[in-house]
Amino acid sequence: MGLLFWRMVEGRCLPPCVICISNLPTLMTRFSFALSLFLLAGCTASPDEVPTVAPQTAEVYPRYSLGQWSFHRELFSGEMTSIDFVEAAAELGFDGVEYVNQFFLDRVEDHAFLDSLAAAAAAADIAGVMLLVDNAGNLGASDPGERQRAIEQHLAWVGAARQLGCPIMRVNAHGDGTPDEIMAACEAAIRPLAVAAGREGVQIVIENHGGISNDGEWLAELVGRLADVGVGSLADFDNWCVERENGQLWGAPCTNRYDRYRGMMDLMPTAVGVSVKAFNFDAAGEEPDIDFGTMFDIIHAHDYRGFLGIEYEGDALPAREGIAATLALAKQSWKRRPVVDAAAVSRLDSTLARFVETGGVAGVSSLIYEKGEEVYFKAVGMADRERSVPMDRNTIVQIYSMTKPIAGVALMQLYEAGKFSLDDPVDKYVPELADVRVFDGLDASGKVKTVAPARPMTIRDLTRHTAGFYNGSDVPGLREVWAAADVRNPDVTLTGLAEKLGKIPLLFHPGEQWEYGISVDMQALVVERISGQPFGEYLREHVLDPLGLEDTRYFVPEEDRGRMSGAYRRQEDGSLVQLPSAEAHAFNVNPQTYTPGGFGLTSTLGDYARFGRMLAAGGKLEGVRILEPETVRRMATNHLSSEVTERLWLPSKGQVGFGVDFAVRLRPPVSAEENPGTVGEFFWDGAASTLFWVDPANDLVAVFFVQLFPYDPIGLHHGFRRAVYGPFKPIE
Q1: What pTM was computed for the model?
Q2: Calpha distance 203→2 (Å, rounded)
Q3: Of the CATH numbers 3.40.710.10, 3.30.450.20, 3.20.20.140, 3.40.50.720, which one belongs to the domain with range 342-397+556-725?
C-alpha cells in the first residue's frame, strides 16, 4: 500500500519516516490509514527532519486525471453531483479525478458523503489524485490570528483528502501586503500545515492560482523555501495574470501577465501535478492561445511522471466535448517525433558543407545523439590547412569555455555529497576573498573608491556569474588595477589567482548583475579546498576517467598533437588566417601549474558527446554514475532572478536564464533571427565558436566543433541549430 522513501534536501537524507499513498486507482481504506499512523508513531520530526510525502508518480505514463472544475457550470447549477462527475470521468476514459472543494464546501466533515464519493471512485476504478482547496482562509494573511484560522480550516480538508484517498492537496498562496510579506506569511502558515498533512500521508502543493502566486519566480521561491517539508507545486497552463485592474484577484482585465512558458519552467522542477488547461480550439484542434507543443516540451524536459490533469475552461463547447478535445490535444502533444529525421540530415549536410564551401570556416564537424543513439555525424573540410589534415571525429579541439560545464559537474559532485550549500559564502572556502570590496567610482584625484559588499558572495554567485568579478572591460580605474595584477598570466595557481582577485574591487555587488568571467576558476579552487585534491587531479579521477574521456585534458602529449585542429581568425575582409600553432596551442602543449575551471581543456567530438549524454541520461552513462538525476536537474534549472536585468551579452543567446554553468532556455524563440532551440534545453559554447546543448524534451545531445575566432562572427550556431530543428515557427 505504501512505501518508504528517502528525500534529499541540500545533500542530506531525511529519514524514511513517511508512508506514502501509492498512486493506484484504489482507495486508501481506514484500515490502511490506521496502519500508516501506526508505522509513523515511531518517527519524530525535528526542524531538519520532517515527515514528507513522496511525489505522486504514475507507474505507466502518461496517465490523465480530470479536473472537477471542467464541469463547474453543471455542478454549480445542480445539473451534476460530485458522484456524477466521478462517473463521467470514468466514461470519458480518465484514470483519476481531481476534486475541487468548492462543490462540497459544507461537507468537509460529512464522513458519509466523503465515503460515498470515495466508494464511487473505487467502483469506477478511478484514482483520487488531488483535492484542490479554496475558500478556507488566506494562508498569506498578515494577521497571525487569521493565518491560524486558515491553517485550522485547511487541516480539516487534509482529513477530507485522506478520506477521499487523495495523496495530494492543493492550497493557495493568497494574502495581503507586499510580495515579500505575503511570501513570509505563507511560509509561516504552510510549513506547519505541510508537516501535519505529511503525518497523515497527504502532500501539500501550491498552484499558480491568482495574484502574486501567478508570478512563477515568486512561487518557485516559496516552494523552494518549503521543500524541506515536502511542499511541491501544481503548474497550471494558464494562471499567469499577476495583477488586475482595481487590485482584483479574478475577473478584471489583466494589467501584468507573467510569461506562461517561463512560468512553467519555473514550476516544473518542483511539480507534483500539472493542470493541462484549454479554452478554445482552432480547426486543427490546437489551442490558439497556448502552444501545447512548447508546454509539453517543458513537461518532457523535466521528465515529469505524474498525472496530467485535464481541465477545460472554455464556453464554446459543451463540457464533455471540450474535455474530450483537451484530452485529445494533450495526448497528441505528449508524443515525441524524431528531431533528426531524413529532412534534418539533409539540412545538416548542406549547412556544414556551405560553411566550408563559402570560406566561412576551414573545417567543421558535428555529432548528434537522440534517445541514446547516434543519429548524425559529419566532418567537413580541414582541421589543419597547412598540413592538409582533414577534420575528423577524433580531431582534438580547444573547447575554451565549454570547460565550464565540466568544472560545474565536479563542483556539484561535492554538493550532492553534502560538502557545501550553494548559498554558502565563498570566503568560507576561499578566505583570500574575505576582504574584497566593491568599486564605487573615482574620487576627485582619480583614485579608486570602494565600499563593502551589500551581501557576501556565495557559491551560487560563482555558478551563475553574479559574483561581481571584474573581467577586464573598459572601466577607468578598475582597468588599471586589473592590468597591474596581471590576472591572466598563466604562470599562476588557483590559490595565487584568488590572492590577486581578493585585491581587485568587484565591479558590482554580488547578485546585482550578470558578468561573464573568472567565477568558474574560483569554483575550481572551491573543489580543491573541499576535496583536498588539486583541481586537475580531482577532475581526472572523478569525472574524466570514469566517463572514459581520454582526450579531454589540459595537456596534450606530443604523440597526439598531430590530431589537434589549427585555429583560424576571420579577417575584416572575410578571409581566414591560420594562427601559428605555437601561439594557438601554447596553453595545451606546455605543462601548466594553472588548471582553470573556466577554460583550458581540449576534447574530441566523441568525448564531449559522452559528457553530454551523461547529462541527458540524468548523470549516468553506461553504468557509471557521475551525478544523481536531481543534481543534474538543479544544474539545468534557472537560478538567475528576473531582478538581475544587467546581463552583458547573455540575451544574445536567446530567451534564456542561467543555471549551474549552463544557459537554460526559458521561452521559445520569438523571431526567426533568434537562435533556434527547445524550451528546457541547457547549453554552452566556447571562444573558438564550439557549441553543445542538451535538449531534454527530445532526449537529444548535439556537439558542434570548429576553431574560429573571433567568437561565431558569421552565425554558425544559428545556422547549425536551424538545420537541426527546421524552419522557424512563431509561437503565440
Answers
A1: 0.89
A2: 14
A3: 3.40.710.10
